[in-house]
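Minimal example, chain plus TUI.
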Amino acid sequence: MFSHNRIVELLKVKYPIVQGAMAWVADADLAAAVSNGGGLGIVAAGNMPPEMLDRELTKVRQLTDKPFGLNIMLLSPTWEDAMELAASHRVPVVTTGAGMPGKVIDRLAPLGIIVVPVIASVALAGRVRKQGARAVIAEGMEAGGHVGEITTMALTAQVSAAVDIPVIAAGGVADGRGMLAVFALGAEGVQMGTRFVCAAECNAHERFKNRIIAANDRSTVITGRALGHPVRSIKNKFTQAFQEMEENRVEIAELDKFGSGKLRAAVVDGEVDHGSVMSGQIAGLVKKIQPAGEIIEEIVGEAYELAKTIGARFD
Ligand code: TUI
């Protein structure tokens, strides 16, 4: 299986399934469970203090002997600390999000670290390819958290046509059908966040997981456009208040202050009414808590069987 897949070859994984890097959610326990299940687990640096990230990176190596990744969120004031920790821990793979990864590639690629930026446009895919990215994660606006404006369907097809490095699609994928769909568009891997929030090994608060399990196709909303950082999350009292503030043209500094700490409150403290429950639009497909390894096997099995069924429909 996957013997002609460049993502499997590049990342040295069994399956081309990458776990999305979700701040406060994607810790060493989740990353190790995904890597042990044959995918690529990712620790999200987010806004984590460097000492804490240092401990998570030590821990993930204790929990798995398989490849794993670190995600550097470029909007974070501590992104350079995260980059230095990636270097000192010799993390096998680094993904970047929410910004331009040029400095990260320049610093880490010479050390043999594979840098895979998240991009939300064809132009950025071309630019990071020239800068030395080994693959790209094309993330559509169906994704949870900070999003661009192009859908996974349109972005994956156009990015795959535009660059010669392998493409991992993200946003709106939570099962084997989604995996097969993005492979049809030219992707050789998938990244999934929302489905892995509901992994048994994920330490997100039970109430956070339950909001995803209870969600349907229309449960999420984008807020933060006024801030220039649109974020998709599950509708609740927090998103309602935020939307009202945006409609009333409340000052950016005040909006920023209102949003600050709300993701941590939801994930860690279970503040699912007054916190930010970031989730993708595909939450409606996520119906239960399962071990990460089981999620991966299920998705690969579904995609493989479905590929054969669809092939037969063309006979
Ligand atoms: O980064 C993400 N998703 C995130 S980061 C995050 S933490 C956060 N909290 C509050 C406000 C903002 C962020 C939650 N979810 N996904 C990767 C991603 N990167 N999506 C889109 C992009 C992106 C967008 C523009 C990457 C590069 C880019 O470059 C253009 C530019 O103008 O910088």
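Residues 220-278 form one domain. The mean pLDDT is 97.
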